[in-house]
Amino acid sequence: MTYSSDTPMNIGTRGSPLALAQAYETRDRLMAALNLPETAFKVHTIKTTGDRVQDRPLSEIGGKGLFTKEIEEAMLSGAIDIAVHSMKDMPVDLPDGLVIDCILPREDVRDGFLSPSVTGIAELPQGAVVGTSSLRRRAQLQHRRPDLQVVEFRGNVQTRLRKLSEGVAQATFLAMAGLKRLDMPADTATPISPDDMLPAIAQGAIGIERRKGDEAAAAALALINDTDTQTRLFAERALLRGLDGSCQTPIAGLALLDGDRIKLRGEVLRPDGSESLTDTQSGARSDAAEIGAEMAARLRPRMGSNFF
Ligand SMILES: NCc1[nH]cc(CCC(=O)O)c1CC(=O)O
């Protein structure tokens, strides 16, 4: 079958401005690749548990896939055909019957530092308050600056910028990818080199999920898959899997390609930042997933028990 105005491809997404920007980017790429008009696609916004609960840290609500469950149910029921996700937020295991084999070209992988008063972590005064809801960023920050105070900072990009302007914290972090996809002014944040703060696994990458048997969706998505980004995510997500990690564990990882070689850097931290373990491994890009798994196997004995 082919998609048309009468039988459009139904695209599911969360409703935040960033999620919508990612869904429209996906639609635009599919329009170009399939040479179809806008009317051959329909974007459906779906509210998830994670969107609904705003007053508690995510780690407290618990459970897997807080931002994906309702969307995946809509896909399994046939209400939508594909779902657009930030790969950074995706668990390593997907529900039975669903697959992600389409990854869009990666945006800026770096974290951004945002503050109305200073331009970097080093300049923050002793004891300053920093807002973040990311366990990784919290641990990395406290590892470098144990004097800083970290407060919980939930909500979408716009909410966090508002909290910063209200003075709830003196600084915060946001992924450069999100800011760029939202067309925020370039001076909104100062990019932090991955050498100073290793980003989250899959940061800046968008993945598109579909039903396993849906050959029409598979054929369409194959046209817009970026194999370079996909390969980098094979390595990074294999590391995450090998460490039994999720977005609730302080793990960082970044793979870079150099011709037919791939180089993976990984970091695990104790949640209070008291310890950071890092590792680096290079290999053939065809071995991306093995490299991630091997790194996890090397880190595990170094971590001992109850590391996280
Ligand atoms: N966990 C929230 C989340 N998921 C994806 C992004 C930004 C886009 C990306 O990293 O791909 C963000 C916000 C942030 O970390 O600033």
Explain briefly what this protein structure is.
This protein has 10 helices and 13 strands. It is of the alpha/beta class and 308 residues long.
Model description:
It is a single chain. This protein has 308 residues and is α/β, with parallel strands linked by helices. The chain has 3 domains: 9-105 and 205-225, 3-Layer(aba) Sandwich (D-Maltodextrin-Binding Protein, domain 2); 111-191, Periplasmic binding protein-like II (D-Maltodextrin-Binding Protein, domain 2); 239-303, Double Stranded RNA Binding Domain (2-Layer Sandwich). Helices cover 32% and strands 23% of the residues. It has 10 helices and 13 strands. It has helices at residues 17-34, 49-52, 58-61, 69-76, 135-144, 157-165, 176-181, 215-222, 227-242, 288-303, and strands spanning 9-13, 41-45, 82-86, 98-103, 111-114, 129-131, 149-151, 171-175, 190-191, 206-211, 251-258, 261-269, 276-284. The strands form 3 sheets. A 5-stranded mixed sheet has the order 2-1-3-10-4, with helices on both faces. A 5-stranded mixed sheet has the order 7-6-8-5-9, sandwiched between helices. Strands 11-12-13 form a 3-stranded antiparallel sheet. Helix 9 packs parallel to helix 10 (288-303). It is globular and about 60 Å long. The chain binds the ligand NCc1[nH]cc(CCC(=O)O)c1CC(=O)O. Ligand PBG is lined by residues 86, 88-89, 174-175, 177-178, 203-204.
